[in-house]
Design brief:
Length: 404
Amino acid sequence: MSSTSSTGSTGSATSSTTTLITNIASLVTNDPSLGDGSPLGLIQDAAVVIDGDRIAWTGDSRKAPATDNRVDAGGRAVIPGFVDSHSHLVFAGDRTQEFNARMSGRAYSAGGIRTTVAATRAASDAELERNLTHYLAEALRQGTTTFETKSGYGLTVEDEARSLRIAAAHTDEVTYLGAHIVSPDHADDPAAYVALVTGEMLDACAPYARWIDVFCEKGAFDGDQARAILTAGRAKGLHPRIHANQLSYGPGVQLAVELDAASADHCTHLTDADVDALASGATVATLLPGAEFSTRAEWPDARRLVDAGVTVALSTDCNPGSSFTSSVPFCIALAVRDMGMTPDEAAWSATAGGAAALRREDVGRLAPGAYADLAFLDAPSHVHLAYRPGVPLVREVWRRGTRV
Ligand code: NIG
Ligand code: FE
């Protein structure tokens, strides 16, 4: 492979400029009407035309139309930018000690979240924003072009609202997670905390968020509380998603399907009825292997879900407690090695699957009309994301038609 090079004025594009990216060894489009007809819509010896911030054309490089600029991909693979539909990046502080203790045999529990809540409350807005932008930039370098992120480490009206305000300055995919755990200030009265989360806190947070989430788990919120929280959020125009069935069996997954949540996240402990419910609805199962890796927990069974016809997304869950990785390629490698996914399925789930978990059609695919968000791999194929674990294969990232 030669190095990536561009001719013409620049590699970046404006709305009046078209750019041809050619000499792509294999292109993942995620459009089954293109290329090999598989879910990945794989095209060999491919080219892409970008017009402004959108994809205008994809196909065989020999049939590419004329454009203003031309970029040589050097025989690399090109994939859609990753869609990381689950992260917790508005936080301060560090939980190295907790991780160290866990790797020495202590179990993970929801209680560690309190450590980050204390640090987050003590941080200034500027510190929280610096931390957020640091991890967003880290993720972008690794190919993530669409990010969801949440509140959940403030747990007061002011701290949840400022977390979301800071997040909303950097992404459209913002989730209100006032119901991460019962706030330490209400430890003796969880009902009062649920009333706050569904009342004054929701009113303060709704203007900054698209989604509402709840950690439905022993030690956090039960099924009735989760239902009350998500229903209240829906009444304020927020759409539900749920942390469900992470540490134990429970009602979260079936509640997610019943409420038409966009996603049930974690899905580690599932009954057959949970799998059937997911297969029957539009709720995506978002698997977060970084959490199982970093808590030495049982892997979610991706194979079982895919075989049942469930739409599966793969995301990082990047947070300082249970999964401190911003690397989607790392999650792909784990999903293939330990969760029964094929490399094709994992690549799809980390791009188109993430887009489905955010109910987006404009990202996660490289077909005409979609945003020109793409990653060049230092490899001839997307399979190398799992075949070469831990290797920084993402060589170049384009977002909205511009090289970043
Ligand atoms: O997705 N499950 C709940 N929330 C996070 C953990 C957050 C933390 O430990 O700080 C998760 O794994
Ligand atoms: Fe999470």
